[in-house]
């Protein structure tokens, strides 16, 4: 059986996952990349080094985001969001770091490696030396849809 997820199911999938795929398109090129994220009910927050993904989103801020949950090949749920990239600075960036750090701190109980990820977010936002300058950003979600398969 296939079907559509309701809004409550969509929100649950977005809030209870930490890795999704970001799709961006600029200059005739499409790029899809996995990202760690936190969702607060309105925005998808993430951070990145200043590279191709950030360059493309600065050029064309319209993006797509996908997250899924698989129990098996015939038992899955998938959510797709469309929205706009917003690069954060100052207090907005500090808030984004707080949302991300809180989300990844919750996950460290299950996976100690994520602690390092959360620490990198904090260090990058505090201006510590990192391999690349950190860009804190969010996706302002405009539209969400979800599908499932259950056999």
Please provide a brief summary of the model.
By secondary structure, this protein is an alpha+beta fold.
Write the layout of secondary structure elements.
Layout: E1 2-4, H1 7-16, E2 19-26, E3 29-36, E4 38-39, E5 43-49, H2 52-59, E6 62-72, E7 75-87, H3 90-107, H4 113-125, E8 134-150
Antiparallel strand pairs: 1-8, 2-3, 2-6, 4-5, 5-8, 6-7, 7-8
CATH superfamily annotation: Electron Transport, Fmn-binding Protein, Chain A
Beta-strand percent range: over 45%
Q: From the alpha carbons, calculate the radius of gyration and give it in angstroms.
A: 16 Å
Q: Tell me, what is the CATH class?
A: Mainly Beta
The residue ranges in which pLDDT falls below 50 over 5 or more consecutive positions are 128-132
Describe it.
The chain has 151 residues and is an alpha+beta fold. The chain has a single domain (2-150), classed as Pnp Oxidase, Chain A. It is built from 4 helices and 8 strands, in the order βαββββαββααβ. The protein has helices at residues 7-16, 52-59, 90-107, 113-125; strands at 2-4, 19-26, 29-36, 38-39, 43-49, 62-72, 75-87, 134-150. Strands 1, 2, 3, 4, 5, 6, 7 and 8 form an 8-stranded antiparallel β-sheet that branches. Helix 3 runs antiparallel to helix 4 (113-125).
């Amino acid at each position: 059986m296939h079907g559509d997820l309701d809004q409550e199911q969509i929100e649950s999938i977005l809030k209870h996952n930490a890795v999704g795929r970001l799709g961006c398109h600029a200059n005739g090129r499409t790029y899809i990349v996995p990202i760690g994220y936190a969702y607060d009910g309105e925005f998808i927050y993430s951070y990145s080094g200043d590279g191709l993904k950030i360059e493309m989103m600065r050029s064309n801020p319209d993006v797509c985001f996908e997250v899924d949950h698989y129990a098996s090949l015939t038992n899955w749920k998938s959510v797709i969001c469309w929205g706009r990239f917003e690069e954060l600075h100052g207090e907005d960036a500090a808030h984004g770091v707080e949302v991300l750090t809180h989300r990844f701190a919750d996950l460290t109980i299950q996976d100690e490696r994520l602690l390092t990820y959360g620490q990198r977010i904090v260090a990058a936002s505090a201006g510590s030396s990192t391999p690349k300058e950190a860009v804190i950003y969010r996706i302002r979600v405009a539209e969400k849809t979800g599908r499932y398969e259950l056999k």
